[in-house]
Write the structure tokens for this entry.
Amino acid sequence: MRRPMMKRIWGSGLFLAIVLGFAAQAQTTTIWLHGSDGLRQANEALRTGRVETAIRHAERVRTSSRAQRTATEIRLYQAAEALLCVGHRLAGRAALALAHCDTAIALAPGDWRGYVNRGAAAFDLGRLAAARRDFERARDLAPGEPAIEANLALLHRRLAAEQ
């Protein structure tokens, strides 16, 4: 089984969970999207540091799948929202990222990655209680996931430093 790529974010040291593909996995909350050129291009752009290009590709997928109601199109829309969450955070627009994170989570509330990404955006905005809630929800969904544990450790260090 392929695992999602974890990208270390240089400024805050937090990890973001980025969906790289699309294939339903039995007995798990992980959904990988294969078959969307726009998502593949957005993922590749994120992987190579071309954040604004990734956002443009994800916006196109989001726009084209928004009006559709097939299961595949809804998953594409959710993945595009998740990519927009990550992209806007990487571009320094954490407040805008939160709106996309919220939509991604609403469409896939069992996917731990959405909570990690929203928690990272909240962390960037100094909303540490919200970040903690999201990281802890992610841990409930994916116990032992290294990215979640690393983010919680960073959060606890920041909380300790602020006291």
About this structure: DSSP finds seven helices and two strands in the chain.
